[in-house]
Every structure is written in structure tokens, then in C-alpha cells.
């Protein structure tokens, strides 16, 4: 499915899935993609489905629409395109893919086709020459292979290092090692302010670098969007007004833009301060620098893209949590309000029976609020379980004693046959008690108004000899297979308004924190069985 992700602007982090054939984007609240940027028109542009994806059509917007920096009225979008409107930047992505070109392998009829081979090279020659270009036969090939080896090492760093600062530091070390520069740095644009921030500032032979960069040169490179090599920086009339060039005796300078796929994210700046007359930078150094800067630009752009994706997912999760909590709190407060009305009426009419019913309703909903808060804290907070030898036989009996009155009220039979001589098991007793109480309570609720309703709890050693199992089985309506994983997600409840939708996620989390697992087996109409599996050899915590 195609989507728009806001990667810059006041709505940064928002994500919009494109589900309709026509999608209007703008500031109006009724738009499928509604933005809050004041510089965006109420109906700014429209996305129209095409056989290959989506096409963009500007709807006469006040400030225009740009795709990858170009003002457009109509444009066919490709995955990865950036759309600029007002102060907002949208990233268009799609999971659609195009088919690859077809090839056909046929048996060669001319048996003499291999007689034209004039030279053979062993398969490992490529890696050997990349590691040591001096083994090449000609000066031209040695130079090209040296540059290629640098690019190979830079690409390898980009593929393995995820932290941008660490990556730029590694690339700068590589540049200083393979060029004659005395010092260098990257200047990277801040996403929000656009200010150039120094990164990977390094001087040859020094641990700490104190580098002064010519703003005159940097501004020229960014404006002209071209890489430059200056053989005599102090004497170049284009930069004669740059005081930093004269003051810091910059003889030779290489400055190139860091161009990603969609925009320039900064510059790479290198200089020499040697007093010798011989030139140390060549055109090969310039070409190599601009290639490396492009690699760095792509890496920075990709990192920012994925950060925007993460932020969008985080905002979606927060929105889902707030929506779920609001729904359940609203239902609980309705019960509290109804109970309060009953209490108020009972007091006015001196009706003790109505007072008891109303107060009971208030207390039950207060307990639901307590359960919701406890579940939210348990689900959101990482905790270290307190592992200690636990008598699970007695723990299960205690859980059943807690729910026995509730089971009797709903006419549910509880069955439990404690095994003899069952060993103590290292686990978090409170966590297991809470998880088991939730499972048994759920089973009782699932059996309401059913004949011969029975909940069976069984404790046993697993066949692998390394773990124990606790089964909670009921003969209720069962759970459809397609819901097996859904019910373990937050705010998914099969109880309607009575459940918080957090009981099972919290129970699974509690069991997993102890190195165990909580699983479900069920056949629709035949009941279901939840199984807690815990290791028998889990070490106790200090």
C-alpha cells in the first residue's frame, strides 16, 4: 500500500495510508490527508491512482508544489519521491514493485565460440587488486584501482555503521589516509534549522582538531551545487574577501556538496596549509571527494528517512494507546455515573436496597479503573522479575480460592487435581499469580450462561524435562484461529466493554520476562486452552 510520511514540518512523524483512488492533500480538515501547516493551501494537491501507482496534480495552490525540488503541475510519483508544500516535506513510498526483465538461456550452436578467449583472470584477482592496487600492471589502472578501493571501503562503512557520527568519523579517517589533506570535516545541515553543524572534524597527526572553515567557499559550493578544487585559495579572486582564507594560510582547498538522492545535506571540506610550492591536490582527489561525499549524503538521508518512519510508528502507537484508554475509561465512567445516580436517588428516597445496588456498581467500576491502571503500568514498564523457589501447587490453589466466589455466581465448576511431590520451581511468584488469575478469570467470563461450564487447571512437567506447564482449559465457545495472535495485542478484547484489552498482553509479558512463554490452542465451539510454560532451571536473581 502507498503512503505519505511527513518528514519535515509541523506535522513531522505523521503517516497517511493512501486507500482511495483520489486523495486530496491540504489544510482543510475534511481532506484524507489534512495538514496543519499554515502555508499549505486548503486543497493543495491531489493524488490520482494510475496503473503504476499515483500521479500528483496541483490544485492551484498558493505557494506551489515541488517534487524532488522541481515545481510541478502534474507529476507521476515514484517510491522515495519527496513532495514539498509550504513548510512541509512529504515522503511518498509504496510497496509496489515492477517485474524484472526476462532473459532466455539457449544452448550455443557454435561449438567454437570459446575459441575467441584472449585472456584469463583468476576469480580472486579482483579482491587482490582492491586490497593492493600497486600490483596492477599500469599507472592508469593503479590510480583507478586506488580510488575504487577507497570507494569500496567507504561503501563498506556505510553498509555496516548505523550511527551517523561514527560513520562520518570513519569516512573522514579514510579520506585523510588516502589524500594529502592536512585537515577536514563534514558540515551537515540541521533538519529543523538548516544551520550547518560540524561533524568528524579531524587534523592529521592530532587527537583534537581546531579547524576553521571558510564560509565564503562553503556558501559558493552550496549555491553553485558544484565541487571545487582551489590551488591557491588566498589568491583566488572569487574568495579574496574571505578573511579566514588569509588568516589561516589555506593554500589548497577541496570543498564538495554532500548530495543525497533528493537534496544536499551538507559539504565535505578539505584543505592543506603546507608552505611548499608543489600542488598536493589533483583532479583525481576532487573526483574521489565528490564520490565519497555522495556516499555520505545518501547515508545521512537514509538515516533521516528511517528516523521519520520510526517517529511515525511511535506516534501511531501513542494514538492507538490513547484511543484504547479513552474508550475503556469512558465505559468505566459511565458505570460510575450510573451508580452515583442510583446512590443519589436512594438517599433522596431513603431506599436502602437501591443504595446497596448503586454503591456496589460504583465499587465494581472503581476496581476496573484500578485494574486498568495496574495493567497499563505492567505493560509499559520493563521490570526485573524476582526469581525465587516457588510452590506452584499452593499458588494455583490460592488463585482458585480467589475466583471461587465469582465462579459460583456464574455457575462455573473449577477442577484442579494437585500433582503429588511436585518440585518447587524458580519463578516470580507474584507475576505467575497475576498471569494465572487473569487466565482463570477470562475462562470463567467465557463460560457465562453455558451449560455444564467447567474450567480445568492442570500442573505438570513438560515432556522435555526442562520446563513445567500450567494449562487453563475451558469448554466455552473457543477462539477463531485468526484471532490467536490478535488477542495478545493491546486493547484487543473479546469481552466487549467489560475488558480492558490489556490482561493477555500483560500476562504474556510477565511470563516472557521469566524466560517462559504463554500460548493458546483452541477449536471454535470446543473451548480453548492457555498454557504457561516456565523453565525449571532458571537462576535466581541476586
Overview of this protein structure:
The protein has 542 residues and is α+β, with helices and mostly antiparallel strands. The protein starts with a strand and ends in a 7-residue tail after the last strand. It has a 6-stranded antiparallel sheet, covered by helices on one side. The protein has a 5-stranded mixed sheet with strand order 4-3-5-6-9, with no helix packed on it. The protein is built from 10 helices and 23 strands. Mean pLDDT is 79; it is low at 97-102. Helix 3 runs antiparallel to helix 6 and helix 7 (352-380) crosses helix 10. The protein has 4 domains: 2-94, Sandwich (Tumour Suppressor Smad4); 126-305, GAF domain (Beta-Lactamase, 2-Layer Sandwich), CATH 3.30.450.40; 326-380; 388-535, Heat Shock Protein 90 (2-Layer Sandwich), CATH 3.30.565. It is elongated, with a radius of gyration of 34 Å. Strand 1 and strand 2 form a beta hairpin. The chain has helices at residues 125-131, 139-160, 164-178, 215-224, 243-247, 283-349, 352-380, 392-409, 429-446, 503-512, and strands spanning 3-8, 15-17, 22-26, 33-34, 45-50, 53-58, 66-67, 70-71, 74-76, 82-85, 88-93, 183-189, 196-203, 228-230, 252-259, 264-272, 388-390, 413-416, 425-427, 454-461, 467-474, 517-522, 528-535.
Amino acid at each position: 500500500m502507498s503512503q505519505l510520511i511527513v518528514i519535515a514540518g509541523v506535522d513531522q512523524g505523521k503517516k497517511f495510508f493512501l486507500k482511495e483512488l483520489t486523495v486530496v492533500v491540504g489544510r482543510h480538515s475534511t481532506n484524507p490527508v489534512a495538514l496543519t501547516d499554515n502555508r499549505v493551501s486548503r486543497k493543495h494537491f491531489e493524488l490520482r491512482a494510475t496503473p503504476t501507482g499515483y500521479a500528483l496534480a496541483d490544485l492551484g495552490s498558493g505557494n506551489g508544489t515541488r517534487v524532488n525540488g522541481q515545481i510541478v503541475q502534474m507529476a507521476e510519483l515514484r517510491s522515495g519521491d519527496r513532495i514539498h508544500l509550504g513548510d512541509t516535506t512529504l515522503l511518498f513510498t509504496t510497496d509496489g514493485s515492477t517485474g524484472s526483465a526476462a532473459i532466455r538461456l539457449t544452448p550455443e550452436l557454435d561449438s567454437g565460440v570459446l575459441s575467441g578467449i584472449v585472456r584469463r583472470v583468476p576469480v580472486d584477482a579482483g579482491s587482490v587488486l582492491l586490497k593492493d592496487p600497486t600490483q596492477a600492471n599500469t599507472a592508469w589502472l593503479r590510480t583507478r584501482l586506488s580510488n575504487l578501493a577507497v570507494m569500496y571501503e567507504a561503501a563498506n562503512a556505510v553498509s555496516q555503521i548505523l550511527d551517523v557520527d561514527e560513520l562520518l568519523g570513519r569516512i573522514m579517517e579514510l579520506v585523510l589516509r588516502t589524500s594529502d589533506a592536512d585537515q577536514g570535516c563534514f558540515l551537515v545541515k540541521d533538519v529543523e534549522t538548516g544551520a550547518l553543524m560540524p561533524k568528524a572534524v579531524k587534523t592529521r597527526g592530532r587527537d583534537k582538531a581546531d579547524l576553521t572553515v571558510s564560509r565564503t567557499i562553503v556558501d559558493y559550493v552550496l549555491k553553485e551545487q558544484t565541487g571545487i578544487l582551489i590551488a591557491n585559495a588566498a589568491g583566488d579572486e572569487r574568495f579574496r574577501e574571505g578573511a579566514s582564507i588569509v588568516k589561516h594560510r589555506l593554500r589548497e582547498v577541496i570543498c564538495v556538496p554532500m548530495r543525497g538522492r533528493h537534496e544536499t545535506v551538507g559539504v565535505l571540506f578539505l584543505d592543506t596549509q603546507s608552505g611548499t610550492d608543489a600542488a598536493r591536490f589533483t583532479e583525481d582527489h576532487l573526483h574521489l571527494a565528490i564520490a565519497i561525499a555522495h556516499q555520505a549524503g545518501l547515508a545521512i538521508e537514509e538515516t533521516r528517512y528511517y528516523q521519520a518512519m520510526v517517529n511515525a510508528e511511535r506516534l501511531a502507537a501513542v494514538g492507538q494507546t490513547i484511543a484504547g484508554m479513552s474508550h475503556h475509561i469512558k465505559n468505566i465512567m459511565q458505570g460510575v455515573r450510573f451508580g452515583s445516580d442510583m446512590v443519589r436517588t436512594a438517599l433522596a428516597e431513603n431506599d436502602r436496597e437501591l443504595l446497596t445496588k448503586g454503591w456496589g456498581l460504583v465499587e465494581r467500576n472503581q476496581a476496573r479503573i484500578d485494574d486498568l491502571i495496574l495493567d497499563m503500568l505492567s505493560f509499559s514498564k520493563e521490570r526485573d522479575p524476582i526469581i525465587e523457589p516457588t510452590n506452584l501447587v499452593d499458588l494455583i490453589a490460592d488463585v482458585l480460592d480467589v475466583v471461587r466466589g465469582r465462579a459460583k455466581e456464574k455457575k462455573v465448576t473449577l477442577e484442579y487435581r494437585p500433582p503429588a511431590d511436585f518440585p518447587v520451581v524458580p519463578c516470580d511468584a507474584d507475576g505467575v499469580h497475576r498471569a494465572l488469575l487473569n487466565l482463570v478469570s477470562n475462562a470463567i467470563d467465557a463460560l457465562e450462561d453455558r451449560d455444564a461450564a467447567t474450567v480445568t487447571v492442570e500442573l505438570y512437567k513438560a515432556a522435555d524435562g526442562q520446563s513445567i506447564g500450567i494449562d487453563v482449559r475451558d469448554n466455552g465457545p473457543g477462539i477463531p484461529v485468526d484471532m490467536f495472535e490478535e488477542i495478545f495485542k493491546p486493547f484487543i478484547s473479546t469481552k466487549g466493554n467489560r475488558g480492558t484489552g490489556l490482561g493477555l498482553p500483560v500476562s504474556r509479558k510477565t511470563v516472557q520476562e521469566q524466560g517462559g512463554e504463554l500460548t493458546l490452542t483452541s477449536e471454535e465451539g470446543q473451548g480453548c486452552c492457555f498454557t504457561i510454560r516456565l523453565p525449571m532451571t532458571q537462576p535466581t536473581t541476586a
